[in-house]
Amino acid sequence: MTNTQPGPVVTGVDYSAPSGAATTYAAREARRRGLGLLLVHGFLSTAPEGEQISIGDNQALIVAAEERLAETAAAVRLDYPDLRISTKVLAGSGGTALVQESASASLIVVGARGRGGFTGLLLGSVAAQVSAHARCPVVVVRPALAPVAGGSGPRPVLVGIDSSMPSADVLSLAFDEAAGRGAELLAVHVWSVVEMSELNVRTVWSHNPATARIQLHASADRVLTEALAGWEQKHPGIIVRRRTIHGDDPAATLLDIAGEVWSDLIVVGARGRGGFPGKVLGSVSQTIVAHAQTSVAVARPHGHEEPRSMAQLCNPKSAATSRNSVVAAVTTSAGV
Predict the structure, then answer these.
(1) CA distances from residue 9 to 107, 139, 265 in whole angstroms, order as listed
(2) Burial class of residue 243 (count of CB atoms within 10 Å of its CB; 0-12, 13-18, 19+)
(3) How many CB atoms lie within 10 A of CB 317?
(4) pLDDT of residue 56
(5) What digits encode the pLDDT tens for the residues 50-101?
(6) H or E stretch including 207?
(7) Over 80: is that where the pLDDT of 239 sits?
(8) CB of 191 closer than 8 Å to CB of 223
(9) CB–CB of 323/7 below 8 Å?
(10) Rounded to two decimals, what is the model's pTM?
(11) What single-letter DSSP state applies at residue 116?
């Protein structure tokens, strides 16, 4: 029988500042969703070249890792006393461990960078691997922006709507995140002339440039209206603002708008316009995850990829893992 019960929130721990931020985010989400929290540490045994670690030494290292992880759990429990917290030390890199655990997760939360990240690097290897290969939604956590002068209340959640892909998973995550923050939701559709002409093959486009532009704007507005149909009724407590804008580079346009409105979170789909079959993360989402100055959520259906072997999981170019729990992530041996 298939287990349909929600799994725990899983957070990867490498004791870096980004890992701590991800753990806090995951703990908060776990409490809000009524789920348990699982702290995960990826463990790699290393030895000088040509030497081997004895079974006894390796076991001692594992015990030490488990004890340190238990200390982290105790610290989290101080702030979240009612949260069910468990721990797990897994063999393998941080990214491998988290992709593996995502098979039973509803959300993975990863720190944008982990231990060993280079100064100026916006996205670490663990965050890149997990956001690309996890089998459930992923949130890449970045430090909160400085308060806006004269501003009050939570910053808006920005969601990008792509006309070429179903938007249910994206909007479900966006509305959920906005509700959790008590924030407004800004729905943005970035359109291009080529895209609109392909979508509306039956439209009789005017030869008058001014009239044609009005038609294009109306078509873009219609895409956003149809995508949001019914969602505002399901979430009457969330203020939804809409924006359509012309742009040939959707990622750059969304990043500009996010900076303009001081967005607290950008929500995008895993694949969209221009995505190729088998590609696990579209170019727009990949660019936003890598270059956003704020946190990013990548929505995808649960279990969107078939499980792969551990050997494949160890390769950042081919990893996988789905279902209800929240995973926050970066691990000691991540090497990001």
Answers:
(1) 7, 13, 19
(2) middle
(3) 9
(4) 56
(5) 555 555 567 888 888 999 999 999 999 999 999 999 999 988 888 888 988 8
(6) none
(7) yes
(8) yes
(9) yes
(10) 0.80
(11) T
Question: Does the pLDDT of residue 286 top 70, yes or no?
Answer: yes
Please state the rounded mean pLDDT for residues 282-292. 88
Straight-line distance from the first to the last Cα atom of the chain, in angstroms, rounded to the nearest whole number:
39
The CATH label, of 3.40.50.12370, 3.30.450.20, 3.40.350.10, 2.130.10.10, for the domain at 6-136+304-336 is 3.40.50.12370
CA-to-CA distance for 88 and 91, rounded, in angstroms?
A: 10
For residue 251, give the nearest of 221, 274, 229, 228 by alpha carbon. Answer: 274
Assess whether pLDDT exceeds 60 at residue 202: no
Instruction: Determine the Cα–Cα distance for residues 267 and 244; give it in Å rounded to an integer.
Output: 16
Shortest CA distance to 133 belongs to which of 242, 278, 287, 296? 278
Model confidence at 3, pLDDT cuts 50, 70, 90, reads low
Distances (CA, A) of 95 to 41, 54, 121, 264: 10, 25, 17, 25
Compute the distance between CA of residue 320 and CA of residue 317 in angstroms, rounded to an integer. Answer: 10
- The pLDDT, as a whole number, for residue 83 is 95
Domain ranges of the chain: 6-136+304-336, 147-301
Same fold, 6-136+304-336 and 147-301: yes
Q: Cα separations (Å) of 51 from 44, 47, 56, 59, 332?
A: 15, 6, 15, 17, 22
Please state which of the four CATH numbers 3.40.50.620, 3.80.10.10, 1.10.10.60, 1.10.3720.10 is assigned to the domain occupying 147-301: 3.40.50.620
CA distance 59 to 187: 51
| Residue, of 281 and 195, whose pLDDT is higher | 281
